[in-house]
């Protein structure tokens, strides 16, 4: 090792007499210990929470911090306590009665690798502070490497590199391997935090990844691991055969058989065919698992869009199999059978789909005036017929799922606060199901996608009493239009500090639009409000869903390369729809805040440690 960068830092005789001291080098405090006739140099800040290690105890080659009693091997700094992390040590030499040290030693592993390893430790041990430190650490390294000149970013994976990709990939690998139950609420939260990521600013992006990683670790903690099946050797099996086998295996709740079929499809078919198989099975029964199956499958596919399909499709999609085989089937629920047998209505419409699609082939549907009001009506027969007529008139899956999602958005936006609190989740589930169906319609044009429209619309129907009476959501004419949007956002953020501000939060969203505020700024504030809370799964899911709904409306309006004329007709007030999407998210968030914000405290500690700020008053 070169000794050129060694610098003299202390008198050896004095160190022998004192036993320990602190020196400052390049702005960092380094503790020197004279122990067992040797000199040791360690970062004076305990890697756990910054307590000065010079105040620790040294005995038998072991340094023990006095704050939470983390122990470190004195020479190389390895910790006995994974929650504390290893401490940085510095090579030392004694020359001419002086202690010399290298203040900037070569790292033993690249910084990104080190933080990835720490993140894995944090996931395995479910240590939130370790997770937060690792996410901040890797993002910090990545930012300095990838910041481009303009500062503009669009695709998170490409633009944010390791700060985004490392937490996502590490947590996905961990969550899909170590949870026998497969893809659950943790990985779904992670997925939707990844979608939220570009909409929030600065440090909230780190908070988003922290929320996702934390959710995965929580979901996996205490669970048995997963053991993945293998694909069949025969790679010549057709899509039709694999699709049939997968659905039949799910039908009889055969996890292993279904997983082998799916893995074979992943190995031998293009991704679009795999998506088609999943959407077909996810809609073979009605509104599986209160909508979770479709939403979770969509979240798994959204996650894969940020990862390498070849490397990750098998573990990610195999982990979704229990969502199909263990799900509650809504046609088995009395609420779907009585007093009106809406399950029969849905199943009958499913049976007619091939004919309806054939009738609509080559036709272009214009959404009729009042279509969403029909979907919100109390006549399930009329609702299903309106959908069937639309399909026969050429409505695409994207158009029809969008209409159902607009209806479902109103159930949340207009949710009456005199309902039971738990019923927020009834309307929420329908909303996220409808949005997931819309996103899946963008991933596959399988006919089965229409089944999700029908089932989603019937769930909207079943939720109708939760809008009776409708919550008093303000319209543009009811609010000020001359306030500074920044003041409106400030008031909105304050709403989430106090319970019972549901309607006020909705009103302020409307006001922000009326005052000409930029929706991107509004989303950033809503994102901040979400990410500082100890939000539960549904709250993360809902706010992310509201943002994605907002974005979907714009995307549909813009059409697509394949179908540039796709878009909303004149019957749709796009401004109102976008406003309502964020009203829905803001109202749901306000109903579930404030929380204890303990995770924000952990994140704040990790941030301060990263900046080198002192958490402990002692020198
Ligand atoms: S163990 Fe050292 S600060 Fe916690």
Molecular structure report:
The protein is α+β, with helices and mostly antiparallel strands and 619 residues long. It folds into five domains: 7-101, Rieske [2Fe-2S] iron-sulphur domain (Rieske Iron-sulfur Protein); 111-220; 239-330; 343-471, no CATH class; 477-560 and 571-610. 54% of the residues lie in helices and 7% in strands. The chain has 24 helices and ten strands. It has helices at residues 12-18, 111-125, 128-146, 156-177, 185-196, 203-220, 239-251, 255-268, 271-282, 292-304, 309-318, 321-325, 342-360, 371-375, 380-392, 397-413, 424-441, 449-462, 485-495, 502-514, 519-531, 537-558, 574-591, 598-611; strands at residues 7-11, 20-25, 28-35, 38-43, 57-59, 62-64, 71-73, 89-90, 92-95, 98-101. The strands form three sheets. A four-stranded antiparallel beta sheet has the order 2-3-4-8, covered by helices on one side. Strand 6 and strand 7 form a beta hairpin. The chain is elongated. The two termini are 33 Å apart. The relative contact order is 0.08. FE2/S2 (inorganic) cluster binds next to loops. FE2/S2 (inorganic) cluster is lined by residues 46, 48-49, 51, 65, 67-68, 70, 84.
Quick overview:
This protein is α+β, with helices and mostly antiparallel strands and about 625 residues long. Helix content is about 55%, strand content about 5%.
| DSSP helix fraction | 40-55%
Shape: elongated
Strand portion, in percent?
Answer: 5-15%
Question: Which structural class do the helices and strands define?
Answer: alpha+beta
Main sheet specs:
4 strands, antiparallel
**Which ligands occur here?**
FE2/S2 (inorganic) cluster
| Residue-averaged pLDDT | 94
Uncertain segments of ≥5 residues (pLDDT<50)? 148-154
**E-strand count:** 10
Tell me the Rg in angstroms: 28 Å
- Number of spatially distinct domains: 5
Task: Tell me the number of helical segments per DSSP (H or I, 4 or more residues long).
Answer: 24
How are the strands of the biggest sheet laid out side by side? 2-3-4-8
- First CA to last CA: what distance? 33 Å
């Amino acid at each position: 090792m070169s000794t050129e960068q060694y610098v003299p830092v202390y008198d050896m005789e004095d160190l022998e007499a004192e036993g320990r001291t602190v020196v400052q080098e390049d702005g960092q405090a380094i503790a020197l210990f004279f122990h067992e006739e040797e000199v040791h140099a360690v970062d004076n800040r305990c890697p756990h929470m910054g307590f000065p290690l010079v105040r620790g105890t040294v005995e038998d080659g072991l340094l023990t911090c006095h704050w939470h009693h983390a122990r470190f091997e004195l020479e190389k700094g390895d910790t006995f306590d994974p929650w504390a992390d290893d401490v940085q040590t510095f090579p030392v030499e004694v020359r001419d009665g002086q202690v010399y040290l290298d203040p900037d030693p070569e790292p033993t592993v690249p910084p990104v690798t080190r933080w990835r390893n720490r993140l894995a430790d944090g996931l395995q041990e479910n240590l939130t502070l370790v997770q937060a430190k690792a996410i901040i650490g890797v993002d910090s390294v990545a930012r300095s490497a990838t910041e481009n000149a303009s500062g503009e970013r669009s695709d998170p994976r490409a633009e944010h590199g390791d700060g985004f990709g490392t937490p996502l990939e590490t947590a996905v690998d961990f969550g899909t391997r170590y949870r026998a139950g497969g893809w659950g609420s943790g990985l779904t939260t992670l997925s939707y935090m990844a979608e939220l990521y570009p909409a929030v600013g600065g440090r909230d992006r780190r908070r988003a990844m922290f929320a996702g990683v934390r959710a995965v670790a929580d979901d996996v903690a205490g669970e048995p691991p997963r053991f993945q099946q293998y694909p069949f050797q025969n790679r010549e099996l057709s899509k039709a055969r694999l699709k049939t086998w997968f659905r039949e295996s799910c039908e009889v709740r055969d996890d292993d058989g279904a997983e082998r079929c799916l893995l074979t499809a992943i190995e031998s078919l293009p991704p679009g065919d795999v998506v088609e198989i999943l959407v077909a099975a996810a809609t073979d029964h009605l509104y599986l698992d209160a909508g979770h199956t479709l939403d979770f499958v969509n979240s798994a596919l959204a996650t894969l869009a940020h990862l390498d399909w070849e490397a990750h499709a098998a573990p990610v999609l195999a982990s979704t199999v229990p969502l199909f085989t263990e799900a509650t089937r809504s046609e088995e629920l009395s609420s779907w059978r009585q007093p009106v047998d809406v399950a029969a209505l849905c199943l009958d419409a499913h049976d007619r789909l091939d004919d309806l699609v054939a009738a609509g082939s080559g036709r272009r549907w214009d959404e009729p005036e009042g279509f969403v009001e029909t979907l919100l009506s109390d006549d399930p027969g009329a609702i299903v017929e309106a959908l069937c007529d639309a399909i026969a008139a050429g409505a695409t899956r994207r158009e029809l799922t969008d209409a159902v999602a607009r209806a479902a958005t109103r159930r949340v936006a207009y949710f009456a606060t005199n309902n039971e609190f738990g019923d927020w989740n009834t309307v929420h589930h329908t909303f996220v199901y409808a949005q997931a169906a819309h996103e899946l319609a963008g991933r596959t044009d399988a006919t089965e996608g229409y089944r999700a429209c029908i089932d989603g619309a019937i769930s909207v129907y079943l939720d109708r009493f939760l809008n009776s009476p409708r919550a008093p959501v303000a319209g543009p004419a009811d609010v000020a239009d001359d306030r500074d949007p920044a003041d409106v956002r400030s008031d909105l953020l304050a709403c989430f500090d106090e319970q019972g501000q549901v309607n006020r939060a909705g009103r302020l969203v409307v006001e922000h639009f009326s005052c000409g505020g930029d929706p991107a700024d509004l989303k950033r504030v809503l994102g901040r409000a979400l990410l500082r809370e100890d939000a539960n799964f549904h709250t993360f899911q809902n706010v992310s869903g509201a943002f994605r709904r907002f974005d979907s409306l714009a995307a549909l309006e813009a059409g697509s390369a394949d179908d540039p004329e796709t878009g909303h007709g004149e019957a749709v007030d796009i401004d109102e729809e976008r406003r309502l999407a964020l009203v829905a998210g803001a109202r749901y968030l306000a109903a579930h805040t404030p929380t204890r914000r303990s995770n924000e405290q952990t994140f704040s500690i990790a941030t301060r440690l990263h900046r080198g700020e002192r958490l402990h008053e002692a020198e």
